[in-house]
Amino acid sequence: MKITDLLTTKTIILNMSAASKPEAIDELIGKLDKAGKLSDRDEYKKAIEAREQQSTTGIGEGIAIPHAKTSAVAEPAIAFGRSQEGLDYESLDGQPTNLFFMIAASEGANQTHLETLSRLSSFLMDKEFRAKLETAKTESDVIEAINAKEAEEDEEEELSSPEGKILAITACPTGIAHTYMAADKLKDTAKEMGINIKVQTNGSSGVKNRLTEEDISAADAIIVAADTKVDMSGFNGKPVIEVPVAKAIHEPEDLLNKAVNKDAPVYQEDGNSSDSSSGDKNQRTGFYKHLMNGVSNMLPFVVGGGILIAISFFFGINAANPDSDQYNRFAEMLSIIGGGNAMFLLVPVLAGFIASSIADRPGFAPGMVGGLIAITSGTDGTGSGFLGGLIAGFLAGYLTVGIKKVLAGLPNVLDGLKTVLFYPVLSIFGTGMIMLLINPPLTSIYTGLLSWLEGLSGANIALVGLILGGMMAVDMGGPINKAAYTFGLATLQAGNYEFIAIVMAGGMVPPLAMAISTTLFKNKYSDQERETGKTAYALGAFFITEGAIPFAAADPGRVIPSMVVGSALTGMLTALFSIHLTAPHGGIVVIGLVQGGLTKAMLYILAILIGSIVAAIIVGFLKKDLRKA
């Protein structure tokens, strides 16, 4: 869909009267409403304001792109507004804004919303295009300028000379604005410097302008400006500059100079670069990138599996148990799909994708096997949880890289056997043997903690609540968490309902706290983290502690201590309020089973909220402001 399919002369304001951000929003909404594009003006305004509260859509360079996707839109549309004098729109660069594109996307718009936003972000980085919009005398001039720009962009980008070629790839986690802004900054700067460049964008709507084998073969150097995993197969022997996507937006000239001078490490097919001293010391690579590759691929299993388990409890706490009077076949199926399969795969998937990020495709199989061993092969048939999976992922990845280097000297005639025989056999064997050796000691922590907790059961109840609650947040599914939860189950079966209430409340805090923190401290989290935070509200409410794992894995030093404090506080309050619960799982679904009626149930919710808010504030203050990073 073209931009001009959504933008018409009826939704253009060449001389806005607004003098402030709220007035600008109202004026643009009024234009859309008058053109019949909205079914509920007030609801659409609420959606726009909610988006602005997440982070300003004033992207700088005098541009703002407010947008919302809501059922209050009758027909997808774009409103364009121009303020001759400019106004304060709280833009990221602190400068006045004079060009406004308001996107109204309906609930059923699918990818239209993202693709249109992506193209607009890209087009508006072109100074000449912005100049045309700023000087347009009629609404038709605006339409013509946009049509001309789209026609220009639709032409396949070609490398014009046989020498002096620079290639680039841009990618951000959401694949929206930054991906295309970085691409256009590199292209515009290269044009000014007389440098021949081709840029591939890995955006929300797929890969565009893909680099070919011929392009890579002829390239002098390659710039990879990305905050997410990028396929670099085929770059062997080429100088490769790896930097965060923001550097391509703010420092394109410096990157291009490095590329022209080949001031970059030479990429090797094993995923490492030689001469690393010449690389960018601040790039988001190494541990963080590998970790994020694992976490991002694991998250759908956490969300899908966890929610399905929680839904099964709607039919009854024991509805999935064939031996129970509450048994329901559909509830059992939900439990099997969610808990027996999706959640079971969580740790192996985490390990597999961490390993593949380190060693590319050959690392995936040993990572998956190592992750599976982490959750199935320990003392007493238990496992070491997601911490064991992290160890397995990095172990498998770097072990595979080592095997690649060892086998690099084999005759070329054996190259075909490396990927199908040597790599998988040796890497799976090595990873499996090491994990089988270290996993029992890791899981022995679990049995030791369980014995210790049993010894505490007669101690001060507030102290036990503090300890149990805190333990639920230490490793979020690992041996410490399991020890606390198993203790709660054991006492529940013995007729003591206090401890299960404590561990469930403590386990709900981490995801709820991270969800609250991403809402209160928007500037401390990326767009992807804020989206994950929205999901964490539901996961926390249903007692799915794993909903906080993406945050804990990305920043354990700040997140885990904060969550432990919040969960410990909730555990202590739950104990002091003398909450008794007869259900082993379910979170908000089983609040009605708290003994003591409505008063006790409200106190239970209060304890959870207090701990969650405290943890959210602590981690929010500890986090760095991304705008200053």
UniProtKB/TrEMBL annotation:
PROSITE patterns: PTS_EIIA_TYPE_2, PTS_EIIA_TYPE_2_HIS, PTS_EIIB_TYPE_2, PTS_EIIC_TYPE_2. The chain crosses the membrane at residues 298-321, 333-359, 386-408, 420-438, 458-476, 497-516, 536-553, 560-581, 601-622. Its main location: membrane. Residues 166-261 form the PTS EIIB type-2 domain. Keywords: Cell membrane, Membrane, Phosphoprotein, Phosphotransferase system, Sugar transport, Transferase, Transmembrane, Transmembrane helix, Transport. It is found in: Cell inner membrane. It is a multi-pass membrane protein. InterPro entries: Bacterial_PTS_Sugar_Transport, PTrfase/Anion_transptr, PTS_EIIA_type-2_dom, PTS_EIIB-like_sf, PTS_EIIB_2, PTS_EIIB_2/3, PTS_EIIC_2, PTS_IIA_fruc. Residues 5-149 form the PTS EIIA type-2 domain. Residues 287-629 form the PTS EIIC type-2 domain. It holds the Pfam family PTS_EIIA_2. NCBIfam families: FRU, fruA, PTS_IIC_fructo. PANTHER family: FRUCTOSE-LIKE PERMEASE, PTS SYSTEM 2-O-ALPHA-MANNOSYL-D-GLYCERATE-SPECIFIC EIIABC COMPONENT. This is Fructose-specific PTS transporter subunit EIIC. The lineage of its organism: Bacteria, Bacillati, Bacillota, Bacilli, Bacillales.
